[in-house]
Amino acid sequence: MCPGFVNHLCYLFTEVSQMCINADNGDVKSALLVLALLLDTMHGALKSISEVVRRALDVIISLLLC
């Protein structure tokens, strides 16, 4: 994950929230669909990051216990 990825997701959340605020009923449904996809993307990214952190902690702990 890089800062560009985070900035891109933040930008998309901002755009979708503006769509929800300024839209009529049909556009809100589209915005909510995009929001659901963004949340799914965030969920996948956080799962991936947590796995990397767990592995790094396992390595650190094993080095400290040796």
Number of domains: 1
Number of strands: 0
**Residue fraction in strands:** under 5%
- The helix/strand order is HH
Instruction: Calculate the terminal CA-CA distance, rounded to whole Å.
Output: 31 Å
Structural class: mainly alpha
Q: Indicate the radius of gyration in whole angstroms.
A: 18 Å
Can you summarize the main beta sheet?
none
Average pLDDT across residues? 84
Q: Count of helices?
A: 2
Helix % is over 70%
Low-confidence stretches: none
| Overall outline | rod-shaped
What does this protein look like?
By secondary structure, this protein is an all-alpha fold. The protein has helices at 3-22, 25-65. The longest helix has 41 residues, at 25-65. The two termini are 31 Å apart. The mean pLDDT is 84.
Task: Give keywords.
2 helices; single chain; 66 residues; mainly alpha
Secondary structure blueprint with pairings:
Blueprint: H1 3-22, H2 25-65
Helix pairs in contact: 1-2
Compact description:
This protein is mostly helical and 66 residues long. The chain contains two helices and no strands.
